[in-house]
Amino acid sequence: MDSMALRTFRTSEMSPEAICRVLQPAEADIARVQAIVDGILAEVRSRGDAAVLEFTRQFDWPEATLDGLRVTEEEIARATDALDLSVLGAMRQAAENIRRYHERQMPRDWFEEMQPGLRLGLRHTPVDSAACYVPTSKASLPSSLLMSVVPAQVARVPRIAVVGPCRRDGTLPAGVLAAAALLGVTEMYKLGGAVAVAAMAYGTDTFPKLDKFVGPTNLFGTLAKRAVFGEIGIDGLYGPSDVTIVADGSAPAAWAAADMLSQAEHGEDSPAILVTPDAAYAAAVSAAVEAQLTSAARRGYLSVSLERFGGIIITRDLSEAALMANLLAAEHLELLVADPEALLPAIRHAGAIFLGAYAPVPVGDYFAGPSHTLPTGRTARYSSGLGVATFLKRSSLIMPDANWLATNRTAIATLAEHEGLPAHVEAVAMRGERE
Question: What is the number of helices (H) and of strands (E) in the chain?
């Protein structure tokens, strides 16, 4: 591809809603993939270990054995020796940042007298077990392990297992193993996609049935997560990573272009959208994207991603740019403006918000502290990123005394009678008059 022009839209010519419809990625062949996933789930549920081993040999590791699918503690321990000390140091700093941030997320339990004779409260308890999925077959992604395991540890989940596909030779990247060692993780399984989900949801003789499955998977794993929800808890359904950049022209166009390319680097289906009221700036960013592409190491699929899923939206003003951002409900939202805090109140839907010229998405993806497992595909309209709350359950606490119940028994019985539930009335009535 000799040149590439980003698609450009103007809200003066198309409504924001119409632009969103054009930018909406075409759906994958869900029915075909779902049929394969359903077959995997059914086989693992009925045949257990035999099906897990069969599918793992088919999809990931041809020479797999059941014993070999559990990572040994020796493998984990050895990984730190194979990793550059600078990488280990950066990983340790990132883990500290992630832990510090998530410790601030821990909710407060409370149990207080809300009325005379009635104490109410809220108690938070962690799930007993969680599987943290880390994509490992094609790249070393220790950041994904840190971003899911640390929040689970902060939530005090008693049993945390890391799950992810191995390479064709049965190995896992040293960086991922070293991250596990750094966090003290000792339970890891070489299982990928729908097979991993099925094994953790149903359990087999070799693999444990766990309570929660978190982390981004491929399409097969995502559809499997959706199918087994209820059998096991899940964090969300994740698709291709995306970014929306709201810019007012105050930052260099080259910076915005670089941020679009860094997002497109995730894959050929990763949307990168610039929203700006400045037409001249939009043109400058488009030119900068093309210039940076000429020397980009992964130019081929960067070009495909930007051409198919990238775009520039020129709005009437910054307020309309914020409206556009809310409609796009991005996984990552950059406020590349002179006063990002002033614009922040207008933003309602985003997985993570990066404020200012010195907050490119990689700051959050790797190091700052918030988890990078975030809602994709505009699901930030109704969902949140992975955090401590992902691993916690809320229990209401209700403790009335005899006097309170006697005072309120009639009102409770009235509502129960209205709903036609006489046993409810009796359960209250038999506790007698106020003593």
Answer: 17, 14
User: How confident is the model at residue 4, as a pLDDT?
Assistant: 67
As a CATH number, domain 8-20+240-373 is 3.40.50.1980
Per the structure block, which two tokens stand in for 400? 């009335």
DSSP secondary-structure letter at 105?
T
Q: Distance (Å, rounded) from C-alpha 435 to C-alpha 433? A: 6
Strand runs labelled E in 58-194: 110-115, 118-126, 129-133, 159-164, 188-190
Give 224 or 76, the one with higher predicted confidence. Answer: 224
CA pseudo-torsion sign 44, 48, 52, 55: negative
Amino acid in position 328: L
Tokens of 416: 């129960």
CATH annotation of 48-234 = 3.40.50.1980
Answer yes or no: pTM beyond 0.90: yes
- Give the whole-angstrom CA distance, residue 419 versus residue 11: 52
Q: How confident is the model at residue 266, as a pLDDT? A: 85
Nearest 5°: the CA angle 97, 101, 106 is 145
- Range 316-321 contact pairs with CB under 8 angstroms and sequence separation of 24 or more: 316/11, 316/12, 316/277, 317/277, 318/246, 318/248, 318/277, 318/343, 319/346, 320/11, 320/16, 320/277, 321/246, 321/275, 321/276, 321/277
d(CA 289, CA 303): 10
Residues of the chain with CATH 3.40.50.1980: 8-20+240-373, 48-234
The strand pairing partners of 333, in sequence order, are 244, 353
Q: Which two tokens stand for residue 68?
A: 């070999």
First to last CA, the chain: 86
Nearest 5°: phi and psi at 16? -55, -40
Average pLDDT score over residue span 266-289: 94
Q: Which residues are catalytic?
A: 331-332
